[in-house]
Each structure stands twice: as structure tokens, then as C-alpha cells.
């Protein structure tokens, strides 16, 4: 939840009848957290940021698989990326989906992250920059499919088969040798999921 007024609206559906249920509210705002347990029934759990070791483990697992072993030639540049990164899994997804793993590609992403350092140090601004970076590094064929999702309302649940049918029918996807247009469209959606662009 982003504001106290949203909680005030939601809490009306919870009856005060002695039969209790549990509700977990997540927020970045202390006033919302305090408001959600103001009746004395609840606790605020303050999440701690990931440790440097856990951040590195998450980053490496996303790129290099369950073993999560970073090759020596990437150690320096990955350390610099992790220092600047506010969205580890998103950046790791960009790197994991690069068709070839070249050090200069990593350095290009590191440079983009370095230029994003805003004087406000706003988490929202940083996150928007990471999302922009994610989009910028999409191949052209995925950009078209991703932008097509803009025709749906925000947070709308989309039936995969319906979306695949539309992408094929409207010419965003065409068949390839030994692969139907349907299979190609599904692979595009899977790639967007792997890049953490859609859920």
C-alpha cells in the first residue's frame, strides 16, 4: 500500500466480530504500516536490505544458474554493478538474456547505471531508470511485443492464448523455419518473463 487512505478504505471489509483472520500489508511507508496495526492487533516487521553476500548470490544465480559461479573476467564489473544496483534481479535478467556474454556488454550496462545517479537519490527515480534500461536492451522483436501490452489496462490479467493469437494475427510475430508463429510468440512471452518485464 502506498498511502493511509487506501488502508482506511480496505480495512472496512474486515469485521470486528472476534473471529480473526490474518492480513499481511506490505508498504514502504512507515505511516501506512503504523496505521494498519493501529488497533493494537498487529505488528510491524521492518525488512532489512539484502546483505552484500546475499545480493551477489541472487545476482549470480539469476545469470549463471543454480551454481551461481561468476567467471573471473566478470568479477570486477559485476562488483561495480552491484554497488549501484537498486533492482538486482532486473539487471541480472538483462545480463542473463544477452545472446553472448561479453565483458564490454557488462561494462555498457555498468556505464548506464553510473550515469543514472540522480542527486535526489530517489528510489522511484532509480527504479524508473532500471526499467528504462531493461527496455533499451530488449531486442527489436521483443520491444514490439512488449509495447503491444500497453493496449491492456495496467495490472490487467491477460490470457496467454488470447495474447499469442493477437500477436500473430496483427503481424507482430511470424513463423520461422521448423517453428510456427504460435511457438515463436510463446517464446517471446517466455523471454519477457525471463527478463522480469512481465509476470
> Termini separation (Å)?
19 Å
Quaternary state of this entry equals single chain
Low-confidence parts: none
Mean pLDDT: 77
Order of helices and strands: HHHHHHHHHH
Rg (CA only): 21 Å
Largest sheet: none
Overall structural class, as computed from helix and strand content, comes to mainly alpha
Percent range for β-strand residues: under 5%
Please provide a written account of the structure.
This protein has 199 residues and is mostly helical. The chain has 10 helices and no strands. The chain has helices at 4-10, 30-36, 52-64, 75-84, 88-96, 103-115, 123-136, 140-148, 160-169, 181-194. Helix 9 (160-169) packs across helix 10 (181-194). It is globular. It starts with a helix and ends in a 5-residue tail after the last helix. 15% of the residues are buried.
What attributes does this structure have?
single chain; 199 residues; 10 helices; globular
Topology at a glance:
Elements: H1 4-10, H2 30-36, H3 52-64, H4 75-84, H5 88-96, H6 103-115, H7 123-136, H8 140-148, H9 160-169, H10 181-194
Helix pairs in contact: 3-5, 4-6, 5-7, 8-10, 9-10
Explain briefly what this protein structure is:
Helices cover 53% and strands 0% of the residues. The protein is mainly alpha-helical and 199 residues long.
Amino acid at each position: 500500500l502506498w498511502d493511509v487512505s487506501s488502508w482506511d478504505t480496505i480495512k472496512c471489509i474486515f469485521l470486528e466480530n472476534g473471529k480473526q483472520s490474518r492480513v499481511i500489508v506490505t508498504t514502504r511507508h512507515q505511516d501506512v504500516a503504523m496505521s494498519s496495526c493501529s488497533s493494537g492487533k498487529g505488528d510491524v516487521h521492518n525488512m532489512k536490505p539484502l546483505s552484500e553476500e546475499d545480493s551477489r548470490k541472487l545476482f549470480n544465480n539469476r545469470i549463471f544458474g543454480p551454481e551461481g559461479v561468476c567467471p573471473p573476467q566478470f568479477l570486477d564489473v559485476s562488483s561495480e554493478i552491484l554497488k549501484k544496483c537498486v533492482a538486482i534481479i532486473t539487471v541480472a535478467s538483462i545480463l542473463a538474456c544477452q545472446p553472448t556474454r561479453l565483458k564490454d556488454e557488462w561494462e555498457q550496462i555498468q556505464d548506464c547505471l553510473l550515469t543514472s545517479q540522480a542527486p535526489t537519490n530517489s528510489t522511484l527515480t532509480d527504479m524508473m531508470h532500471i526499467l528504462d534500461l531493461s527496455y533499451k536492451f530488449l531486442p527489436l522483436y521483443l520491444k514490439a511485443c512488449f509495447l503491444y501490452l500497453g493496449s491492456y489496462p495496467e495490472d490487467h490479467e491477460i490470457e496467454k492464448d488470447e495474447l499469442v493469437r493477437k500477436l500473430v494475427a496483427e503481424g507482430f510475430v511470424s513463423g520461422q523455419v521448423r517453428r510456427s508463429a504460435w511457438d515463436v510468440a510463446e517464446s517471446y512471452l517466455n523471454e519477457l518473463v525471463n527478463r522480469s518485464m512481465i509476470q
